[in-house]
């Protein structure tokens, strides 16, 4: 994986497929990221799911958003191209996220978090509300949310099923079993292979398990004061999320004052990957409102 120093950047990259791998030091630890799209306006910083590296971001969503937004994606500490050890709490990941935003010299950002990333951006917004313009929460839930601490027991059998059927476990974890869901899963997994060169390295088993501990702790954590989130918030999920049960999205919409809610039908945890065109259109309208 080739990196470019953060202080010697090329111009905006035209596509996720060839966006440069970059790295910036935060407290002496290198954090890997990619940065594309126009430079005007409020940047959108995105945080992804458990075990995700840069190449687990959906190219169709990244490219769609980056047509008229600056989009920045990053690896968590200890994951992919980022150094250090993976944190054992969501709070530490959020602290890293705030450090990342500051290190890039960004005064105000929009945040998008999917799954684990949704936990992280909630915590960033609570800790540094002055830096957050708008918030997008997808496939996620609040601290202490229903069923979040059971994600391991839901995930392991389907990961084993993936090994036995020679399929990526996300085929079973992110999508419904209907013909529509399975078709969307196959299309999404093919998109994740579109980048051929300078791909990120996958997570180590140790980092994967440390992140699971952080997710489980989030599920057992006391509820946060989400009423303090005064920034406009968009929440999206499928109607059949088996990883972070859909009821958690309803709970977020109830507790965050300026929240809009989208529930996609016949969709699971990865609903935004099942309906990327619709999600990008709604996200851009929300961000530009």
Automatic annotation (TrEMBL):
<dbReference type="InterPro" id="IPR050471">
    <property type="entry name" value="AB_hydrolase"/>
</dbReference>
<feature type="domain" description="AB hydrolase-1">
    <location>
        <begin position="43"/>
        <end position="273"/>
    </location>
</feature>
<dbReference type="GO" id="GO:0016787">
    <property type="term" value="F:hydrolase activity"/>
</dbReference>
<protein>
    <submittedName>
        <fullName>Alpha/beta hydrolase</fullName>
    </submittedName>
</protein>
<dbReference type="InterPro" id="IPR029058">
    <property type="entry name" value="AB_hydrolase_fold"/>
</dbReference>
<keyword id="KW-0378">Hydrolase</keyword>
<dbReference type="InterPro" id="IPR000073">
    <property type="entry name" value="AB_hydrolase_1"/>
</dbReference>
<dbReference type="Pfam" id="PF00561">
    <property type="entry name" value="Abhydrolase_1"/>
</dbReference>
């Amino acid at each position: 994986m080739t990196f470019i120093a953060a202080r010697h950047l090329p111009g905006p990259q035209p596509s996720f497929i060839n966006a440069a791998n970059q790295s910036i030091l935060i407290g002496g630890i290198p954090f890997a990221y990619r940065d594309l799209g126009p430079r005007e306006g409020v940047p959108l910083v995105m945080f992804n799911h458990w075990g995700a590296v840069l190449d687990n971001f959906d190219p169709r969503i990244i490219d769609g958003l980056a047509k008229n937004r600056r989009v920045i994606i990053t690896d968590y500490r200890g994951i992919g191209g980022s150094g250090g050890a993976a944190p054992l709490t969501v709070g530490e990941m959020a602290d890293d996220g705030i450090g990342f935003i500051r290190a890039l010299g960004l005064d105000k950002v929009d945040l998008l978090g999917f799954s684990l990333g949704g936990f992280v951006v909630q915590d960033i917004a609570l800790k540094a509300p002055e830096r957050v313009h708008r918030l997008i929460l997808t496939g996620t839930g609040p601290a202490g949310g229903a069923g979040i601490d059971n994600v391991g027991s839901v995930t392991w059998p389907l990961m084993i099923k993936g090994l036995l059927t020679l399929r990526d476990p996300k085929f079973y974890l992110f999508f419904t079993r209907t013909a529509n869901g399975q078709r969307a899963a196959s299309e999404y997994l093919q998109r994740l292979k579109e980048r051929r060169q300078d791909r990120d390295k996958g997570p180590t088993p140790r980092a994967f398990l440390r992140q699971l501990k952080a997710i489980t702790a989030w599920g057992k954590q006391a509820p946060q004061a989400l009423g303090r989130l005064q920034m406009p918030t968009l929440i999206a999920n499928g109607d059949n999320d088996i990883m972070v049960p859909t009821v958690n999205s309803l709970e977020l919409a109830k507790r965050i004052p300026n929240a809009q809610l989208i529930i996609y039908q016949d969709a699971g945890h990865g609903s935004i990957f099942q309906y990327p065109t619709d999600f990008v259109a709604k996200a851009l309208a929300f961000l530009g409102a």
